[in-house]
Amino acid sequence: MSVLATKSIRLSVICSMLCLFFSSTEIASAQRSTVVAKKEVKQAGLRPMAIPRGSRMMSNAEVTVKGRYLFYNNCSFDDLSDYDAIAPDKEPLFDGATATKINYSSYLLGINGIVVDFESLNGEVDVDDFEFKVGNEDDSDSWSLAPAPVSIETDFGAGVEGSDRVTIIWPDSSIKLTWLQIRVLGNTTTKLAADDVFYFGNAVGETMNSDVDARVDADDVSAVRSNLSGFFNVDIENQYDVDRDGRVNATDVSIARNHLSGFFPLKLIQPSSSERPGIGFNRGVNFGNMLEAPNEGAWGLSVEERFFDLVVESGMDHIRLPISWTHHTSQTAPYAIDETFFSRVDWCVDQAVSRGLKIIVNVHHYDELNANPVTETPRAIAMWEQIATRYSGQPKSVYFEVLNEPHAAFNTNPALWGDYLAVALAKIRETNATRKVLVGGVSYNSIGGLLNLDPPDDPYLVGTFHFYEPFAFTHQGAEWVDPSPPVGTLWINDRVSFGSRWQSWSWNTTFTPTIGSLGIEYTEGWAGARFHATTPVADTDTLKFTIDAAMSLRVSLRDSDDVEVFVEDFQTTSGTNEYSFEFSSSLPISDITIQNLTPDAQPQFQLSNATLNGNDVTVPLLASEEDAIANAFLQAQIWSITHGVPIHLGEFGAYNPADIDSRVRWTTAVRDWSETLEIPFTYWEFGAGFGIYDPNGNAWRTPLIQSLVPEFTP
């Protein structure tokens, strides 16, 4: 089976899982929930709405919209090229401005063509990279969806000054006597830092004879009749040539007469639209072990100017700058941050901004706050007041992150994290009303912590999470972990282990992931393989699994109150057979245990096809190692959809004692699923134990950097 086919199956499973959480109506209204299927269509090359004319390697240049044009498709001026039919006298309308005659046309066929020029577009765009709405009121959020385009063409280098031109075409007369909103989405395809929104209007027969309205009336009919061109051709700007055939004649008079506005003229709107959730960056890297150390250089690395150039060279677009502010802040009020250290951070911010890189300024390794949130809050808020004030004049390419990996007391009482987050965000908003601010959940920014986070109501908030699963693989040999996971654990995409929704709470049991099944060995009598749900599973009544050996076993289930709701002793037979158990529980299931029912150790057997099932629910207990990544990221995406907050993968990486081939496979899979689900990421980290660059040897670690930026050749 091809890689694409395998991924298609996985995507269909993920989409099915998504449906377990949302109704079809909710999915239709939640645009991010459709991105999985959309992305797969793109990868398969099935673009009925896109007609690519060329190709381009990824560029490091930041993409901007350089031109927005109206053109008259299917008129006499576009015989040779659509570009010859661009209306030179028309300009786009933007939010907050009042419409004038330069923003709308009188063309008989309505708005049937738009051209957008991108400066250094990073690849082809298609219908999924735009939103189109129609309406005639100031509040464009209340407008209806526009008819779908019939084609979207990408023409690299064909725009003004060599920019990349995208041509969008609608059916003739499908958008008439109204305004069209074009929203170019800021996403991983367009590489725009934010959505680009503009408008064009149409009032058939309007001769632009008034500055105060766009009404088509008898004066317009008379104006057309008075400006007949006879045997002479007119140019495309002629406002009396309503059908744009190059002549003003009786046909144009008739068109104007048949399109009198009456009580429903095109309004000279002053549009406004809500900002669509987004982040503004895509691929990036953490400058770890630098300013997060108690003193810069103490952990073997200092920030160097060349590091910023190397990030630009790689094609990444942002840096996360972990900073341990607490080591440079006074312990007594007013809790001043050391000016020399502050200036060092200033320099880092300026280095990033001057190169067009986004940069995340965070608070890292704040042990005092994690240990004693209540008593430490005044000092922490004083830090944020100084940081926020200091960088309030920086462009929107500078982001804030409230706190890296809240844990300790925040884990014990997550409400403390919610309380602190509200106070810190309020302080930031005093001087930075619209700056993007990243926030994560407790338990070290885990996905589980994110799922339990009820974010503040803030349109400029970004959710963030970290991913280091399986921990035994990513942190093998890590000196700071006690006990340190042993070196030698491999990561293989299709090998089966616990699903992302489950943790092992087993005892006296060892597990051997294999292709297609999980090997289980009971090392002592009465041992148990216990699957603990990170989020209890509701609405199920049947447990099924397959075992390949004859054994005496007990299966038991516990609910979310830790009450045993089902237990059955049973005997398996030799060969590979399926076993099914029906149960009844009013509460969601939190634990499933398959226990050795003998006093002796038992040889390894294979468990496969293990699922909890209900009428509309199938929840797997096992997953391939790659599927575990996809399923985990899906949970984060569901949180994003539920709360209307975009999400960011802030850290992921595998420590260098691990097998390099496994590290590359794992990193590639994380990057691939992150981008498939359109989750921007920041790899951990640049030049230390997880690093993609060797600062001593002045060389990229090629397999790792290419697992993050496949098109980059060091």
Automatic annotation (TrEMBL):
Q: Name one Pfam family in it.
A: Dockerin_1
What PROSITE patterns does UniProt report for this protein, alphabetically? EF_HAND_1 (PS00018), GLYCOSYL_HYDROL_F5 (PS00659)
Q: What is its EC number?
A: 3.2.1.4
Instruction: Name the keywords, alphabetized.
Output: Glycosidase, Hydrolase, Signal
Please indicate if the UniProt record lists Cytoplasm as a keyword.
no
**Could you name the Gene Ontology cellular component terms for this entry?**
cell surface; extracellular region
Give an example GO molecular function. Answer: cellulase activity
Name it.
Endoglucanase H
